[in-house]
Design brief:
mainly alpha, 7 helices, about 80% helix
Amino acid sequence: MDGIPVWLQAGWWGLVAGGALLVGAAVGYRLEVPQRLIAAIMAFGSGVLISALSFELMEHAYHTGGFASTAAGFLGGAAVYTAANWWLSHRGARHRKRSAGQPKAADKGDAGMAIAVGALLDGIPESIVIGLSMLGGKGVSLVAVAAIFLSNIPEGLSSAAGMKKAGRSPRYIFGIWGGIALASSLASLAGYTVFRHFPPQVVAATTAVAAGAVLAMIVDTMIPEAFEETRDFSGLITVAGFLAAFALSKLGG
């Protein structure tokens, strides 16, 4: 992508990773995918993200800004995400990623908006990471993009399947995921343009904030969906996802 401004590249890679949500949503809405398969894919995606935040985000944050900045950001990101997720969960968005159990379209008046905001809350931290990965001048972290892309497919698939069962319209479902894909692009762009002039400690803390939010999101919303239907095999499938992203990290290095 030589000749293309770096800020535009950042937005593009964020759109690529976020676009996987639309791919997953299309599959989840158009096809009758068994719940056990959806849960298995969700477990795999959880492992992919855990590996990416371990070997890409936290490692990079630590070497960039040291332990103090990394630890403060990591805990802070998890705390902010948990508080926001708790608030949204009490307004109908508790099961926004699940393929079953979502509130019906006619049930709670604010559930639809809570689901939309919750989806945005889940997608923004990981997208910011893509932009931050370009600050070193070595181009985007393809491992981070691949990991987020792979994890976004089961997220979109599971949630869209659940929204369809809850009676949500196609316009609502694809409007949400299309909007999140666009927001992912903007978040990635912001991750690069906003923080490129900041000192390493701030960049490290911001990267760690995103990592903490992503890990909290995995435990709060993805792993419960995976365990619900694949109790005996969720651990093994998650490990397979972790190994896949770990291999990407080493091959990319």
